[in-house]
Amino acid sequence: MRTRDRIRDATGHLNIKEKSSAILGRGDRGEELAMTVARIVLLCFAAGLSCMGFAQQNMPTQHAPRRVVTTTRLVAVFSELETQWWQAVQNKDEAALRRLLGEDFQVWMPDVSGPVAREDWQQQAFARKWGSFHLRQMAVRLLNDETAVASFVLSQSVQSRGKPQADDYFVVDIWSKNGDHWVCTDRYASLVSRASGLAPVEDAKPSGKQ
User: In 3-state terms, what secondary structure has residue 84?
Assistant: First the structure.
């Protein structure tokens, strides 16, 4: 039944005008008061119907439960991505790096005044002679469906001035979902320890050799 019909039925059912006139008298004053009461009741009835419709429209809807991604799976996924990254650096594979790094990728380090742009970082990385690398203490937190934070300790060996050098860095990478794959947008790296003149660290899973 439409709102207008409901109001008409309510008016006829209450018969406010006739009842009010009988009580107050049939003079002009009683007639006017009866009409005022009728208008108030009709307005209240119409407002009630509007509120009912608004409540129905705004009832919470049930959503399908989100798929839970376990921490173990996240660690496995991003360990593989980090391994691909360093293998690309060792092999000087620009195409592989383009798939893994965002266009605005930057590296932040405490001993550098500002961020290092992707082009500058890649040029420096490709110019070095890398030995082996090892990722450990990997931890991943999924902030939302499109953003993840991965932290780990990176042990790497490199030839520096003709001598092997082993460095440990604490690394935090910010990954963003780009379509159906992940790309790294920012890296924060801080030197933990450095040992010069030593044999390169032993390879471990995940690891890479030149």
Answer: helix
Q: How would you classify residue 15: left for phi > 0, otherwise alpha for psi between -120 and 50, otherwise beta?
A: left
| Amino acid letter, 116 | V
The CA-based diameter of the chain, rounded to the nearest angstrom, is: 115
**Two tokens, residue 196:** 């010069």
Query: Which tokens go with 205?
Result: 């899973």
Sorted by where each begins, the domain ranges of the chain are 3-57, 71-208
Q: Is 86 buried (19+), middle (13-18) or exposed (0-12) by CB count in 10 A?
A: buried
Tokens coding 40 = 């108030």
Helices and strands, counts by H and E, the chain: 6, 7
Fold (topology level) of 71-208: Nuclear Transport Factor 2; Chain: A, (3.10.450)
Strands of the sheet with 207-208, listed across from one edge: 116-117, 101-108, 181-196, 163-178, 147-160, 129-144, 207-208
- E-strand stretches of 85-162: 101-108, 116-117, 129-144, 147-160
User: pLDDT tens-digit profile of 83-138?
Assistant: 999 999 999 999 999 999 999 999 999 988 899 999 999 999 999 888 888 999 99
Instruction: Give the pTM.
Output: 0.60
- Rounded Cα distance, 4 and 120, in Å: 72
Task: Give the β-pairing of 163-178 and 101-108.
Answer: unpaired
Structure tokens of 208? Answer: 């890479």
